[in-house]
Amino acid sequence: MEEIVHHENLRGALRKVKSNHGSPGVDGMTVDQLSEHLRVHWPRLREDLLAGRYQPQPVRRCEIPKASGGTRTLGIPTALDRFIQQAILQVLQPRFDPTFSEHSYGFRPGRSAHDAIDAAQRYVQDGRAVVVDVDLEKFFDRVNHDVLMGRLAKRIEDKRLLGLIRRYLEAGTMADGVVTERDEGTPQGGPLSPLLANVLLDEIDKELEQRGHAFVRYADDLNVYVGSMRAGERVMAFLRERFAKLHLRVNESKSAVAPVRGRKFLGYRFYFYRGEVRRGVADKAFRAFKDRVRETTRRTSGQSMRQVIAELNPLLRGWKNYFGRAQQSKLFEGLDEWVRRRLRMLQIKQWKRGKTIYRSLRAIGHGTERDRISVALPGGWWRRALRAGWALPPEWFDGLGLFRLRT
């Protein structure tokens, strides 16, 4: 605890919490107000932490939509509790992380989802064409507090810190002004939760290592790569039994032992081309991306094309940053053209009337007279957007700053 409340550690925690921004918790305090609050109240808070009597506030329940449909429940701690959790994380992570399995990639310094995907691709390239794809049912909601605290107590001697972590686990959830007590789970949304998840699941990682399995785990996504369906079924039976001992359940509807080419991992899929294993974008991630583009380009509330593109570009950049490693150049080329067609449709919808469309295209100056007339003629908006390909070419969108997925 003395290390956690050391001023240098606290400075780093405050910088991190501020840089992450984040929504207020149940007390309404923003991260911008946190510094002033600490200036006034920190001496008392520090004393409470060192004495082992600090009591976290409940987390604010927040539902966010999932790309696959439905919602994911987040628990948003107060800005103060995020600051304290970050300070704890900065002391614990350097101690715990070096001891974690090399097959674990989620929420670890210097490791990323891309590293996990690269490792999985290597396993498949080595001939392990069957995957044991394990999805844990509501993992963060089902973490058993006693089991987790038992793992932590083996590594942490400071009873004050153990008590504080226990109180963070047991802090209730507030929704609509009502606080619900929690006797299991670690809410997604706090800085400490990912480390606690890795502490709990590292035991499974180590057992898989001892058995010589090729596997990749990213948070609660676990894929084990084997050479046959029979071997996969044996591994799945073992994992069901081991997770049950941690009071966790395998989601049978989302988990499977199956050929690699039919499964996805972290938004990617693997396919075979001339004896080589390649990465592609999973169909589900592809559809989710197109749905978000449709949503952005469906709005016609008087925004200029430049404004729409400015709103769309962060989505395009983020998607390219993550899925840019897919070995599908034609996919990115096709998506670029589809995005431009969506924007062409939006633009001619805003112009509405045939004469306005014709005059506007003529003022832009691209394409031939015949191109402009064909777009101005009556017809469905999507079909007219296709005909507008020459009158509103890629270069016009480049001039407005549209980000290209294929660069």
Topology:
Blueprint: H1 7-20, H2 31-51, E1 59-65, E2 71-76, H3 79-96, H4 113-125, E3 130-135, H5 139-142, H6 145-153, H7 159-170, E4 173-175, E5 178-180, H8 193-210, E6 214-218, E7 221-226, H9 229-245, E8 256-259, E9 264-265, E10 268-273, E11 276-281, H10 283-297, H11 305-323, H12 329-351, H13 354-364, H14 369-376, H15 381-387, H16 394-399
Parallel strand pairs: 1-4
Antiparallel strand pairs: 1-2, 3-7, 3-8, 4-5, 6-7, 9-10, 10-11
Can you tell me about this structure?
The protein is of the alpha+beta class. The protein is 53% helix and 13% strand. It is built from 16 helices and eleven strands. It has helices at 7-20, 31-51, 79-96, 113-125, 139-142, 145-153, 159-170, 193-210, 229-245, 283-297, 305-323, 329-351, 354-364, 369-376, 381-387, 394-399, and strands at residues 59-65, 71-76, 130-135, 173-175, 178-180, 214-218, 221-226, 256-259, 264-265, 268-273, 276-281. It has a four-stranded mixed sheet with strand order 2-1-4-5, with no helix packed on it. Strands 6-7-3-8 form a four-stranded antiparallel sheet, with helices on both faces. Strands 9-10-11 form a three-stranded antiparallel sheet. Helix 1 packs across helix 3 (79-96) and helix 6 packs antiparallel against helix 7 (159-170). The chain is globular. The two termini are 50 Å apart. The model has no long low-confidence stretch (mean pLDDT 91).
